[in-house]
Specification:
The complex is a heterodimer of chains A (423) and B (382). Chain A has 423 residues and is mainly beta. Chain A is built from 1 helix and 34 strands. Chain A has one helix spanning 2-23; strands at residues 44-46, 74-76, 83-89, 106-107, 111-115, 120-125, 130-135, 148-149, 153-157, 162-167, 173-178, 188-190, 193-200, 204-211, 217-220, 233-235, 240-244, 249-254, 260-265, 275-277, 280-284, 289-294, 300-305, 315-317, 322-326, 331-336, 342-347, 358-361, 366-373, 376-381, 386-391, 401-402, 406-410, 416-422. In chain A, strands 1-11-10-9-8 form a 5-stranded antiparallel β-sheet, with no helix packed on it. A 5-stranded mixed β-sheet of chain A has the order 2-28-29-30-31, with no helix packed on it. In chain A, strands 3-34-33-32 form a 4-stranded antiparallel β-sheet, with no helix packed on it. The relative contact order of chain A is 0.14. The mean pLDDT of chain A is 90. In chain B, helix 6 (115-129) runs antiparallel to helix 7 and helix 7 packs antiparallel against helix 9 (171-186). The longest helix of chain B has 24 residues, at 16-39. In chain B, a hairpin with a 5-residue loop joins strand 3 (339-350) and strand 4. In chain B, the strands form 2 sheets. In chain B, strands 2-1-3-4 form a 4-stranded antiparallel β-sheet. In chain B, strands 5-6 form a two-stranded antiparallel ribbon. The chains are: A mainly beta (423), B alpha+beta (382). The interface between A and B is large, with 37 and 42 residues.
């Protein structure tokens, strides 16, 4: 009897050991079971509204931060303005939470959409009338990501790591998905896909590409090694997505697979969004440099000194083939795309410049819009000469939005301000 | 019935071990009253799934909660004293009253759900109504450990991530310690039922060390309760004898069935909450959840993310809490003319896993109410 008891216990013991090893096969290796844990990404919460027949088509018009997939921030208007006149101001929605740049407004020409650091996301008619608003859940820093638009929907990320797809006209939620712990960067839309950089609270991050219809994750890159505040830019020719991170590296990511193709040390944090021009990807760094990297392999083609640390995203003057880039101390310069040679440089003497320049152009002429003093936006020609200026009612850290005949600003501690073109 | 009660009183009267153990159980009641007094700051209540219309009862308990808890505390001290003074009939009567008081208060709020009450209720019941009390209590204590060991076969426990707070052991040491606990609870624990005193002592020492070690992770309450309950192995010098009649065998069968049902019928009762109220729920799962309520108004939507962290890790993701919050929010928003309805999403997974075990999305949950079955199954009324 005792022998039977002993054998039973022995068999039970063996079964238990086998079960334990099935769950934790690394017990005798150095690897920890907890290393496999991945609880940052949650399922899609799908709230499909059957009364909405809207389905995205791959060729529909899309609008997102800095205009195009290359993030060149160059906007064409029918006629260039000479100056600007204030039209309307919305309610105050930014309350000065968190030092990161505020979300920029975005428009499809019919409505304006903007996220606020208070956590609210707003949809306005072009005349400033509020259409709807959406509070994007509990998070202490609100929204700093600029939304992306397709024909029927707006896509926006919040600082609690959730990405939302909301119907543009009604404000009804289509789906939401928690994809990490923070979204500070701005997504782009490419046909049926949407891509955005995600941050984690342990100072890391990754990029994800999702199906915008379903919220399904197509790929997720490996961890970048630090947070990325940079919004990814895409070279459609090379199918390479590029962005920078706080660990002083610039990355090139295979857009089809999500695998990191190259990783280049740039010896300074990259906080800005890169601009892609042909085979060049341009970054500004906290080390005060403007770098031109080859998009295919990431090698550095040239470097230019900005004069101060920068988190200002560069832009591109196509006619003159010049890169426009600025530093945190308010300097703004034009650099030759081919060589990095400084063509002109201006010093606006403003502190902590975070707003990035944009280009307004028509078929012949290109002009630049850039913050040039405290609460002041300067309208410059392509030689850096001032044409006119706008005095805003508060500080400004996002990018201005260019409409057909208007300009829109989301103020640091204020709301949306609209200025119409004067010809 | 009276004879049955008298028999039970006589069994306690005739066994000094049971008298001492009974007073230790009273000490556990006293400790319990303190625990509840500390928690008696909540302003609302959450009904149990089997009593969804508990409003009036819970309201009454809430109105007098401090008075009831002080009565509970003083009765436990009085009962313990009566037992030690060999006033067994009185002690037995008051012990019965104490248990009724505990059950009543326990049922007034789902957030009182917890292993430390589940096990104590069973031991109290056996102390009051089982024959051959010492042996059946010992067997049940061994079954508690067995049950706890079985539900620890998962990555949460084996990775050490289920623990509530950082522990002195780290990395591989922690993983091996978690393996050791499973072996202790599933194999070594049988040593408590051995005829050999040395073997019993060896296992008992390991269990005492385990509970003392857990103090810095789970706080004082759980280890005190466990040490109190297993004290029967210290105060009773006699060894275990498996000699039960039909009624006691039916208690054992019922307990085994209660543990088996969630294992058989629910994917992961630690996360779904299904059938969990009838079984043990130890520190086997560390659930993490996302609960999103989208409050829809005319031209406005508010995402509300309630958390239930104050309820403790065992039930913080329990669907009952989320559904109860929906009922409450629908009720509050009724007065708002612009309010339309609420869309709801609730996802739960283990902290060590990427796989969502619970993933519910329901639209318009005020108009089409969510229902919870007795065993915690959630559905939507159309």
């Amino acid at each position: 009897m005792k022998r039977i008891q002993l054998y039973s216990l022995l068999i039970a013991f063996l079964i238990i050991i086998l079960l334990i090893f099935r769950i934790n096969p690394y017990l005798f290796s150095e690897r920890l079971l907890s290393a496999d844990a991945e609880s940052l990404i949650w399922n899609v919460a799908q709230f499909h509204n059957h009364s909405t027949p809207a389905k995205s088509s791959p060729k529909e018009s899309t609008f997102f931060y800095r205009g195009d997939l290359q993030r060149r921030a160059s906007f064409e208007v029918p006629k260039l303005p000479k100056s600007f006149k204030k039209d309307w101001t919305s309610e105050t929605f930014n309350i000065g939470v968190h030092g990161a740049s505020k979300a920029s407004p975005i428009s499809d020409g019919k409505s304006l959409f903007v996220g606020a650091d208070s956590g609210w996301f707003y949809a306005y008619a072009m005349n400033g009338e509020l259409k709807w608003k959406f509070y994007l859940g509990k998070n202490s820093r609100g929204i700093h990501s600029t939304a992306a638009l397709d024909e029927h929907y707006v896509y926006v990320g919040s600082y609690r790591g959730a990405l939302y797809k909301i119907e543009k006209n009604t404000g009804r939620l289509e789906w939401m998905r928690i994809v990490g712990e923070t979204i500070g960067s701005s997504p782009f839309i490419d046909g049926l896909f949407i891509a955005v950089a995600i941050e984690t609270l342990n100072y890391n991050g990754y990029v994800i590409k999702m199906n915008k219809e379903t919220g399904e994750i197509i790929w997720r890159t490996e961890f970048l090694g630090e947070q990325s505040h940079s919004s990814p830019a895409l070279s459609m020719d090379k199918k390479i997505l590029s962005l920078g991170a706080n660990n002083d590296f610039a990355f090139g990511i295979d857009y089809t697979t999500g695998k990191i193709k190259w990783k280049t040390p740039v010896y300074g944090k990259i906080k800005s969004t890169p601009t892609i021009v042909e085979n060049n990807v341009l970054f500004t760094t906290k080390n005060g440099e403007l770098l031109n990297l080859d998009i295919t392999d990431g090698h550095i083609k040239w470097k230019a000194q900005l004069g101060s640390a920068s988190q200002v995203s560069p832009t591109y003057l196509e006619n003159k083939k010049l890169i426009i880039a600025g530093g945190s101390d308010g300097t703004l310069g034009a650099y030759e795309l081919k060589s990095g040679k400084t063509i002109w440089k201006k010093d606006f003497m403003i502190q902590n410049q975070t707003s990035s320049p944009i280009i307004i152009k028509n078929a012949e002429t290109e002009t630049i819009l850039m913050a040039c003093a405290d609460m002041v936006i300067c309208y410059l020609d392509s030689n850096g000469k001032e044409i006119s200026r706008i005095k805003l009612s508060n500080r400004f850290s996002s990018s201005p939005l260019i409409g057909k005949d208007s300009l829109y600003f989301s103020l640091n501690e204020g709301g949306l301000e609209s200025y119409s073109f004067i010809y | 019935m009276i004879n049955f009660i008298k028999k039970n009183i006589r069994e306690i009267e005739n066994d000094p071990t049971l008298v001492i153990y009974g007073s230790i159980l009273c000490l556990i009641h006293a400790l319990n009253s303190f625990q509840w007094i500390n928690q008696a700051t909540r302003l609302d209540h959450i009904c149990w799934s089997f009593a969804p219309a508990c409003k009036n009862f819970a309201g009454l308990v809430f109105s007098y909660q401090r008075e009831l808890l002080f009565l509970y505390f003083f009765t436990s001290v009085l009962t313990g004293t009566l037992l030690l003074l060999k006033k067994i009939s009185w002690g037995y009567g008051f012990f019965l009253f104490l248990e009724i008081l505990k059950i009543g208060y326990h049922l007034s709020d789902y957030r009182h759900m917890g292993n430390y009450h589940y096990m104590v209720h069973i031991i109290n019941f056996l102390f009051l109504f089982a024959r051959n009390k010492k042996n059946i209590i010992k067997l049940f204590l061994v079954m508690f450990y067995l049950g706890a060991g079985i539900i620890k076969f998962n990555t949460d426990w084996l990775s050490g991530m289920a623990l509530l707070a950082p522990t002195y052991l780290k990395g591989k040491w922690l993983e091996w310690a978690c393996v050791y606990v499973i072996i202790l609870e599933l194999i070594f624990v049988f040593g408590l039922l051995s005829h050999k005193k040395n073997l019993r002592s060896l296992v008992l020492i390991q269990l005492i060390v385990f509970h003392l070690y857990s103090w810095h992770i789970v706080g004082h309450y759980y280890p005190c309760i466990m040490l109190g309950m297993i004290s029967i192995f210290i105060i009773d010098k006699d060894h275990f004898r498996f000699h039960f009649d039909k009624m006691e065998m039916s208690y054992i069968a019922l307990f085994i069935l209660a543990q088996a049902i969630p294992l058989i019928f629910s994917t992961d009762s630690g996360l779904t909450g299904k059938y969990r109220i009838i079984s043990l729920n130890m520190l086997d799962a560390k659930s993490v959840c996302e609960t999103n309520l989208f409050l829809k108004y005319k031209n406005k939507t508010i995402e509300y993310n309630p958390d239930f962290l104050d309820t403790g890790v065992r039930i913080q993701c329990d669907p009952i809490l989320a559904v109860s919050k929906i009922y409450q929010t629908c009720e509050e928003q009724k007065k708002n003319a612009d309010f339309l309805d609420i869309d709801f999403n609730h996802q739960v997974k283990r902290i060590s896993s990427a796989e969502n075990i619970v993933d519910w999305t329901y639209r318009d949950v005020c108009k089409n109410k969510l229902s919870i079955s007795i065993f915690g199954e959630v559905g939507q009324q159309q």
